[in-house]
Amino acid sequence: MKHSPSLAAEAATSPDTVTAKASTFDDNELIRTAAKVTRDLNAVRPLIYWSDLLASAVVGYGAMATAIMLENIGFAVLAAVVSILALYRAGSFIHELTHIRRGSMRGFHFGWNALIGVPLLLPSFMYEGIHNLHHARTRYGTIEDPEYLPLALMKSYTVPLFVLVSALAPVGLFIRYALLAPLSAIIPPLRKIVVERYSGLIINPEFRRRPPEGDLKKQWYAQEIAASIWAIALLIAVATGFLPMRAFLIMVAIAAGSVVLNQIRTLVAHLWENDGEVMSVTEQYLDSVNVPPPAFLPALWAPVGLRYHALHHLLPGVPYHALGEAHRRIAEALPKDSTYYRANHTSLWGLVAGLVRGSSGHAASSQPGSAN
Fold first, then answer.
1. Spans of all domains in the chain
2. What is this structure's pTM?
């Protein structure tokens, strides 16, 4: 049972496919070493995946129910925070779904969608077929990358706006599945817009998604129909009084909290400094972020291996539970002055502050009459 092939392994074993730009800027020692010392770490361990997902879902929904039932506001808020963290962790497995080879863990895709994807109106088709483009060697950081914006080069207000707008995600998802999905089934021009603009977890507003094909098309329709039925049922339950408005608003607030937390994590997943040029493997690695131990908090805000995001871009074939071991091995194999360590950072707030300073500085330098 394996993940998709490692980018480092591909680069190390297929030098002829590397562009001239990449061969100039790539750290070949890093690429070869990373591929060599992690060859035995690509196997996924289903017991870890299932137990982690199920535990996160049980804690998340249990804490949500507790927040709804508690009258004490302080304890209800505490339960809601626990629910946000647990459901955020469970939701983060959507990232793993895009890298696990089909059939390597029977039932896991269906199980995740049944437990998390459909109930939270974030079925996996919204990410599958999207995230792989972000890992394409000649797409990363370009206009064709659905998951990239040069935030460090944009206006200073972009950073807070990037986070604040995510709080409206639950409202947008209800519109997407309760209204647009059924309407687009009978209005072809609307369907084209829904598929291109509102069927992917993207941050690049210029990206347009292509219609699904093959097996993804069947899975897409099944998940979309299920999410649409669920969204409509929830709204009917609220309208008829079957689901109390207070309970519904708490559910929506928790869902929004998990999306906002993910958006903050996305904010520091990369340095966002590329202006659209094709980047080499090493440049992509250095534009990405690791927040390795001993820090504890990244385990909460960057769960399921996301604290090793730069390493993941170097080795997308390594499952989340093996990234810590991969980091240890690579760090032991390379000298302290290696390029590898330049992607390691210490905290969330330091990264956010650096991003804000970068966007502010760029905005200032872009003013008429400023020195460049």
1. 7-314
2. 0.88
